Amino acid sequence: MAVISRIELYERPEQFVISVRKTIDFFSQFEGLAGQTFDAILQYAEKNGILFSGCPFTCYHNTDLAQLDVEIGFPVPERVKVEDKQLAGRFIPAQKMVCGISQGPYSETDALMAQIFEWIAANGLEPKGGVYHYYLNDDSRPESELLVELVVPVK
After folding, report:
1. What's the farthest any 2 CA atoms get from each other in the chain?
2. pLDDT band at 152, cuts 50/70/90?
3. Is the separation of the CB atoms in 1 and 103 below 8 Å?
4. I need a surface site. Which of 37, 49, 59, 146 has the fewest CB within 10 A?
5. What torsion, rounded to 10 degrees, do the Cα atoms 135, 125, 121, 9 define?
6. Among the listed residues 12, 4, 8, 9, the one whose alpha carbon sits nearest the alpha carbon of residue 101
7. Taking a C-beta distance cutoff of 8 angstroms, is the pair 127, 95 a contact?
8. Contact 21, 88 (CB under 8 A)
9. HEC states along 35-65?
């Protein structure tokens, strides 16, 4: 994994997303859930003429990998009524976030995450809320080319 950006503080505007949030065992359930969820949201959006306003994301709302509270979704440009029992629409509030981008396998993002948390502490901030991973390109390319933006909301 290579860090290919500076770690920076940003303020992001409120964003509406279509997502699925579940508590799972990361090691046995995440891969299947991620693929099914991304496919379900893509199909729902296509069927309903919804365009995305950004790349797909996962949000880890806790750190217990055996009982991981994970949200998987896509941002959309405006609030839409979600009429699918499996999917939900919600706003991610406007907030300050510390971000960095990594290049390489998804499984090797921990080093950048540690650097982000060190940056947060060194700059007198505190993390708040979940940790987001925004997938900037798709996994049809070699693992060495995968780009992930790691985002930690702060106060």
Report:
1. 47
2. very high
3. yes
4. 49
5. 40
6. 4
7. no
8. yes
9. HHHHHHHHHHHHHCCCCCCCCCEEEECCCCH
**Element of type H or E holding 91:** strand 88-92
In this prediction, residue 1 has a pLDDT band, given cuts at 50, 70 and 90, of low
* pLDDT of the residue at 115: 96
From the CB of residue 120, how many other CB atoms can be counted at a distance below 10 Å? Answer: 17
123: helix, strand or coil: coil
Nearest to 45 by CA among 85, 15, 83, 93: 83
Give the CB-side neighbour count of residue 150, counting CA atoms within 13 A: 28
